Amino acid sequence: MASFNTFAFLGAGFFQYFMGFLLDNLYGGTRSFLSYQFIFILATICIVVALIPAIMSKESFKCPEY
Length: 66
What we know:
Blueprint: H1 2-25, H2 33-56
């Protein structure tokens, strides 16, 4: 579980860096509505792709029997 938390933390940091890089360098460095709209669409697609495995997995929340 600790390794999962570490990778989630690193993934979030990389995601923020990548989005900041795109925002600063997209459309000639101008922060126009179109660049924000592109970032929002890209982030939405990434979130949907990340949620697909969670939706498809069949986890059981039953208590283990001892």
